[in-house]
Amino acid sequence: MSKEKKATAIPKERIEEIYTFLLNSKIKSSDIKKIKGNETECLKILNEALTHTSINSSFNHERLEFNGDAVLRLAASEYIQSNFPKLNVGDRSALRAQLVSDEWLAKVGEAIAIKETMQIAPKALNDKAATQTICAEATEALIGALYECIKEIDSIKIWLEPYWNIESKKVLSDPHKQNSKSALQEWSQSKGLRMPLYKITEISKIHGDSKRFYCKVLLEEKVAGEGWGSSRKKAEKEAAKKALESI
After folding, report:
1. Which of 50, 70, 132, 188 has its CA 20 to 30 A from that of 147?
2. Cα 22 to Cα 29: distance, rounded to the nearest angstrom
3. CATH topology classification for 180-246
4. What is 12-177's CATH superfamily?
5. 3-state DSSP assignment of residue 92
6. Active site residue 127
7. Which of 31, 48, 127, 140 does the annotation list as catalytic?
8. For position 1, what pLDDT does the model report?
9. Closest CA to 65 of 77, 49, 51
């Protein structure tokens, strides 16, 4: 018999845990009612989203994380259209990038305590360096699961809107702070300089390590800023931010 948990039989305690999590996450009661209307299938989907790869390699959050990415982008685009119709396409793209980013997803995941509801192996659960990644991936999977169960994009938007309102206010009050790479590029072009050059070095092989990648950004062959991050993108953003601060 496989050591991995079967996807079919969900214990009563787990069912109660999932419903409690949905309520605490402020999922609308009408949406929870829809889930209960197709309970067997929806609980299987939600349990899939809330199962980490570390505990089950065949039945886990990855499929729904992939689907959730598409749902999230569409919901964020509709949110921006409804709330910021006068933004130009470039600013819309920059704002949406922040509203669907791993950083933002991790914030939502931490706010709803998704890691506490995940079925996850003790080693991964205790890996503090990977907490942000786990929260981001699980939240995106939850979005995919909710859409599969409720089949409405509006429900996803209503649920995520309070989090987007906070993030949008921050981004639009200081867009360069949130998009340091674009800001550095604009500055260098305004000064007639060449494009910033980013050089990345992988320091660690540990997934989720906040200093896994080291980046230095060069302006006219001189180091203008340095940064570290758990991904190449984060390291580049941090290096650009430091360069802007020094400028």
Report:
1. 132
2. 9
3. Double Stranded RNA Binding Domain (3.30.160)
4. Ribonuclease III domain (1.10.1520.10)
5. helix
6. no
7. 140
8. 35
9. 49
